[in-house]
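Supplementary Methods S3. Complex input for the zinc ion-bound model.
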Amino acid sequence: MNCPRCNARETRVIDSRIARDGLAIRRRRQCMQCDYRFSTTEEVVQEGVVVIKRDGRREEFDRSKILNGLRRATEKRPVDVEQIEMLISDVMMGLENEFEQEIPSRAIGERIMEKLKKIDQIAYVRFASVYKDFRDINDLADEISALKKEHG
Ligand SMILES: [Zn+2]
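Predicted complex, serialized as structure tokens:
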């Protein structure tokens, strides 16, 4: 994204907000060269996106499913809806660039976990326990010790 004033290439994002109920992300940017500030809107393309499930079946992408899963995982945690919406939009934008029309559900789950881990570790463990289908307390313990190692 070039600066509309001086056409410099380097800009940095100073603020990101969710718009149109999660279907777009508005970013406030600042030119690294002339400090000019401007906004961009990135659309999340969701129409016609198909998710390939682990058993190979395909189904239409359903944002509300992910939203509900994340809401459960973040219950009583200091994570607000805006953060969740942002997380989903960010993940889907990245995946749409990478996969275009058909996105493996595994990629969605993993990308979400990656980002959730940085937002709230308790929510991450909750989400992972459902997503990864932990079979017993040992799976859970393994995940937590991996998390501890990662964060020292
Ligand atoms: Zn500029």
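The chain is about 45% helix and 20% strand. The pocket of zinc ion is lined by residues 3, 5-6, 8, 31, 33-34, 36 (CB under 6 Å).
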